[in-house]
TrEMBL record:
Gene3D superfamilies: 3.40.630.30. Residues 9-20 have a biased composition (Basic and acidic residues). Keywords: Transferase. Pfam families: Acetyltransf_CG (PF14542). This is N-acetyltransferase. Residues 1-135, 28-116 form the N-acetyltransferase domain. It comes from Paenibacillus chitinolyticus.
C-alpha cells in the first residue's frame, strides 16, 4: 500500500472511516495499475479506473462505490486521486464515466487544467451515440 494523501488538499488527508467490531476501521486507498481501489473491513468499497489512449491522455471510464458506502463523497475522493496523478504527470482526462463527467461539468474551473473537452481530441467515447460521425 502506498501513502497517497500527500498530493491531496489538506481536507482530504483524513481517510474515510467505517465502523468495525472494535470501533472505527480505516478505508484504505490503493493504486493498482490504472485504477484506485478503496478497501474496507469487508473487502472492496469502491474503485475508479482509467486507461491511456496516448502518452498525454487518459480516459476515466468507470467509477463504482458499494451502495452501503454511497453518499460519503468516496467517489469524489477517488476522482481527486486520479486528478492529482494526472496533474503530476501532465496528463489530460476524457471523462467517459458519467460520474466523472458530471463532476467536471459541475466544477469546470476546478478541472479546467486536466479536462480534455470534445473537439480538443480525435478520441471519443465509442459507447456514446454522440461519438458516431454523421455523414
Amino acid at each position: 500500500m502506498s501513502e497517497l494523501n500527500e498530493n491531496l488538499p489538506e481536507e482530504k488527508n483524513s481517510a474515510p472511516r467505517e465502523t468495525g467490531e472494535e470501533g472505527y476501521v480505516d478505508i484504505v486507498v490503493q493504486k493498482q495499475g490504472t485504477s484506485y481501489i478503496l478497501t474496507g473491513i469487508g473487502g472492496t468499497v469502491g474503485e475508479m479506473t482509467y486507461h491511456m489512449v496516448d502518452v498525454d491522455t487518459w480516459i476515466v471510464n468507470h467509477t463504482f462505490i458499494d451502495p452501503k458506502y454511497r453518499g460519503r463523497n468516496l467517489g469524489r475522493m477517488l476522482l481527486d486521486y486520479v486528478v492529482a496523478e494526472a496533474r503530476e504527470n501532465g496528463r489530460k482526462i476524457i471523462p467517459a464515466c458519467s460520474y466523472v463527467l458530471e463532476q467536471f461539468k459541475q466544477n469546470p474551473d476546478e478541472f479546467a487544467d486536466v479536462w480534455l473537452k470534445e473537439g480538443e481530441t480525435q478520441y471519443s467515447d465509442t459507447y456514446s451515440s454522440d461519438s458516431v460521425m454523421k455523414g
